[in-house]
Amino acid sequence: MENRNGLIVSSLVWEATGAAERDAAMVMLQDVPGSERVTVGGDKGFDTAEFVRECGNMRVTPHVAQNLARRGEVAAPLLDALHNARVPMKGASRP
Q: pLDDT tens digit string along 71-82?
């Protein structure tokens, strides 16, 4: 979904696996045309080291909400290395 105007840019139907949203996002991001760096936003379900690492391998800067309750490898160090991409979602103003 494009943030400024709320337009749907791409969509996929995926089997619910717990990682389906992240997997679908990676497939859709691979299809983004052009060679310039782009950004992608996500809720705390996207705050995984694997997702952030894969975004870094492509020309994508992730802006994801921090998930403090996540078990396993946290994405914060990777996000800091990727252009200070962490965006605080709590209390963010909405149009």
A: 766 666 666 665
Provide the number of structural domains found in the chain.
Answer: 1
Q: pTM for this structure?
A: 0.70
With 0-12 / 13-18 / 19 or more C-beta atoms within 10 angstroms meaning exposed / middle / buried, residue 82 is middle
| Residue 3 C-beta-side C-alpha neighbours within 13 Å | 8
Instruction: Supply the angle between the helices 20-30 and 49-57 in degrees, to the nearest 10.
Output: 0
Sign of CA dihedral 5, 44, 93, 88: negative
**Structural domain for 76, as ranges:** 1-95
Could you tell me the CATH number of the domain that includes residue 35? 3.40.50
Nearest to 44 by CA among 14, 21, 23: 21
The DSSP element (H or E) to which 63 belongs, if any, is: strand 60-64
Four-point Cα dihedral 19, 42, 95, 33, nearest 10: -110
